[in-house]
Structures are given as C-alpha cells and as structure tokens.
Amino acid sequence: QSALTQPASVSGSPGQSITISCTGTSSDVGSYNLVSWYQQHPGKAPKLMIYEVSKRPSGVSNRFSGSKSGNTASLTISGLQAEDEADYYCCSYAGSSTFRFGGGTKLTVL
Amino acid sequence: QVQLVESGGGLVKPGGSLRLSCAASGFTFSDYYMSWIRQAPGKGLEWVSYISSSSSYTNYADSVKGRFTISRDNAKNSLYLQMNSLRAEDTAVYYCASARKLPEFDYWGQGTLVTVSS
C-alpha cells in the first residue's frame, strides 16, 4: 500500500495560482471519484478542503478547486495568500475499504 | 461546536500495548464513520483504520492488521483503538477523524502522540 505521489514542494507569489498534483493508479485515483484534499498548518490537525474530487465543504474559500484526469487528481489554489502556506495532502479510496494518502506537498508563499 | 479529543498516548516499549480513546461532542456521533489516521514525526498522513456508524464494518491498513482493533461506544460518544504488539514504526501522532462518507474526513482531533521505544 504505497502512498499516492505528490510533489514534495511547490511555491508561488501572492495573487498567483498554483496546482498540486496527486498521482495514483487505476486501482485508486483512476477508479473512483473519491479523492479528498487536506490542508495542515504546522502543529495543527488537518482540515478538509475538497471532497469527491471537486466539491468544497461549507466555509472553504472558492479559491480552492479540485479536478481529476485519469490517475491524477489536482488541487488548484488561485489568488494565493500568505495564510495558504501549509502542507497539503490528497487522499483516495483504494478499493476493498482501504484509503491511501499522498506523501504531502509543502506550499511556500514567496 | 464539534470537538474530538484524543487521549491515551504515551511512551511504550516495543511489544507493548496501548489503548487510545477519542471523545466526541457537538455532532451526532452515531451518524458518522470514524477513523484513526496517524502521522509519524516529520512524515505524511497514513490511514490506520475505520469503523462504520453502527460498528458493523471495520477495516485496517496492512501495516496494523492483526495488531490493532478499532471500536466505538455510541452511548458514550467515544472511539477507541487498542494497539498491541507495538513496533518502533508505530511511533506517530494518532488522530481520530469523523466522516459522513469516506474518505471525507471532516472533523479531526488534535492528536495524541504514541512513542514506541525501549
């Protein structure tokens, strides 16, 4: 059960847009529209940002959006703000009632 | 408001046991799936186990199957994780998390640290 693949780090300037990829296989990301994304600030618990590939929970800014193509899901953050600097994790259903997280991506706002 | 509060973490020797608890409040606990998710120091998140709302279904990551047991008491709004045969690689912060539908982990506790070391 290896982790989904995410870039270790991404960066962008305030106001810019960035995209974080999450690559799995045809057994997880590619087979199910059950991908979620989490934001985690240092020393804090993760926060749900996107579920079912592209849906936003109530209270999450519409600057956050999700998509999927084939075995790769993506999280896009537009209009980058300083408070977006955090670690981001994807998670996918992997079949047989199991779940797989990505390795995490550290977002730096320059 | 929604609160999930984990407890029971600590230092344990390899081969030892520990029981984690998670006290829930502010939502209808019995309507939610519950999961344990862990994070080794400086590492990413790893799903550990889940239990359905009525305890009918459970499952575990391969890394803990046969050693960990998840359970819940809806009357007490509490989730548990019995951890046996602990290994150094089980060292992590353990979070409990709720989900109306998996894998939408919508509420998380602050975590409890488990350290397995001699």
List keywords for this structure.
heterodimer, A: 110 residues, mainly beta, six-stranded mixed β-sheet, three-stranded antiparallel β-sheet, B: 118 residues, seven-stranded mixed β-sheet, four-stranded antiparallel β-sheet
Brief description of this entry?
The complex is a heterodimer of chains A (110) and B (118). With 110 residues, chain A is mostly beta strands.
How are the SSEs ordered, and which strands pair?
The complex is a heterodimer of chains A (110) and B (118).
Chain A: E1 9-12, E2 18-23, E3 35-40, E4 47-50, E5 64-69, E6 72-77, E7 86-93, E8 99-101, E9 105-109
Parallel strand pairs in A: 1-9
Antiparallel strand pairs in A: 2-6, 3-4, 3-7, 5-6, 7-8, 7-9
Chain B: E1 3-7, E2 10-12, E3 18-25, E4 33-39, E5 45-51, E6 58-60, E7 68-73, E8 78-83, E9 92-99, E10 107-108, E11 112-116
Parallel strand pairs in B: 2-11
Antiparallel strand pairs in B: 1-3, 3-8, 4-5, 4-9, 5-6, 7-8, 9-10, 9-11
Can you characterise this structure?
The complex is a heterodimer of chains A (110) and B (118). By secondary structure, chain A is mainly β. Helix content of chain A is 0%, strand content 44%. Chain A contains no helices and nine strands. Chain A is globular, with a radius of gyration of 13 Å. With 118 residues, chain B is mostly beta strands. In chain B, the strands form two sheets. In chain B, strands 2, 4, 5, 6, 9, 10 and 11 form a seven-stranded mixed β-sheet that branches. Chain B has a four-stranded antiparallel β-sheet with strand order 1-3-8-7, with no helix packed on it. Chain B is globular, with a radius of gyration of 13 Å. The mean pLDDT of chain B is 97. At the A-B interface, strand 3, strand 7 and strand 8 of A face strand 5 of B.
Which two protein chains have the largest interface (Cβ within 8 Å of the partner's Cβ), and how many residues from each? A-B, 27 and 23 residues
Mean pLDDT of chain B: 97
Radius of gyration over C-alpha positions of chain B, nearest whole angstrom:
13 Å
Query: What is the residue-mean pLDDT of chain A, rounded to a whole number?
Result: 96
Query: What are the segments of chain A in which pLDDT stays under 50 over at least 5 consecutive residues?
Result: none
Structural class of chain A: mainly beta
* Number of helical regions of chain A: 0
